[in-house]
Amino acid sequence: MKRKILIVCIAFALIFVCAYFSEIRAYQKTEFLLDTYVTINARGFNAKKASEECFAKIRDFEQKCSVYIESSEISRLNKTGEFSLEDETVRLIKNAKAYSAKTRGAFDITVKPLTDLWNIKNFSRVPTDSEIAEALKKVGYNNIKISNNTVCLENGAQIDLGGIAKGYLADETAKIMQKYGVKDAILDLGGNIYTLGKKEIKIGLQNPSGARGEYFGYVEGNNISVVTSGGYERFAELNGKKYHHIISPFDGKCAESGVLSASVIGKSSEKCDALATAICVLGVKDGLEIINSEPDTECVIVDENNVVYLSDGANFKITDEKFIRGN
Ligand code: ADP
Ligand code: MG
Question: Does the beta carbon of 252 sit less than 6 angstroms from any atom of ligand 1?
């Protein structure tokens, strides 16, 4: 009798141990954050703990930096024109300025007066030329002055980190995974992908004119980020014309560069994010030129005719025959 009880106890203990380990070895969760869906898939010891810390990091950053949250330090900076910010926010703003210089001003976090004017989220009308001209006077990354942790916005400038935040957080969450020793993970911050792991995986690129989840080809790699920007992501329609959320800091209008989508591949998701947005403003030729002059990034650009342009070292395969290579 005693032996039977012992066997049953051991069996229960085994079941419990197996259940415990399978639960912490593979973890998947989606949360609505940063105005999009964030999904983390992680495998390995500590997968759950690490994933929860990643979500906490994203939540904290959103509270600190979102322009939609009045108490965020970015909102307070925009309101007052001068504010002392936390180290991490100052670092990101400095990096954003450097991406502006690299992209000849196509990526510019001071576009906020223009994004407010276009208000694509609740779009109701096309702004007038004089409204655009007024807003443009406030735009320019040289209006951001940084001294230690104090950021000063000159000439009525306002900033929005929306074009770079997801990339930055993809890098930060990848670091959290590495800190916990999680070997395999796919971090998806609203299309900003970061893959961690030994095995190369295929990352499908969204057909910019197709249904969500319809891919026209794939990038293959490991421990890399793939970031896609395009007007098709968020847009409004009026009188048969589409207006989208990527604004040209040059003319103050929704970017009309002929680029439907730009995907940038590299180790720094932050950099990929900034450059992907910039390519949508700059167009195919200048976009390719910038990426080809960067040693650590590649890109896949799709134009309005489904012609696909690749940077010199891009590892991309077209799978949809409606798309053709342009270079
Ligand atoms: P998504 O947010 O869809 O991933 P992006 O990374 O391209 O796309 O970022 C678009 C967001 O960045 C916009 O919603 C806006 O807040 C901001 N933005 C728009 N145009 C620019 C620009 N030229 N430079 C920097 N940020 C921009
Ligand atoms: Mg971006």
Answer: no
Question: Ligand 2 mean position to 13 CA, how many Å?
Answer: 49
Query: What was the pLDDT predicted at 23?
Result: 46
C-alpha 205 – ligand 1 centre gap (Å): 19
Helix (H, G, I), strand (E, B) or coil at 278: helix
Q: Is the predicted pLDDT of residue 17 greater than 60, yes or no?
A: no
Q: Provide the whole-model pTM.
A: 0.92
CA angle at residue 246 from 308 to 253, to 5 degrees? 110
Say yes or no: CB of residue 108 within 6 Å of ligand 1.
yes
Round to whole Å and give the CA distance between 292 and 102. 13
- Taking CA atoms, 75 is separated from 72, 83, 292, in Å, by 5, 10, 36
What strands lie across the sheet with 201-206, from one edge to the other? 201-206, 215-221, 316-318
At 129-171, the pLDDT tens digits run: 999 999 999 999 999 999 999 999 999 999 999 999 999 999 9
Side-chain half-sphere CA neighbours of 22 within 13 A:
6
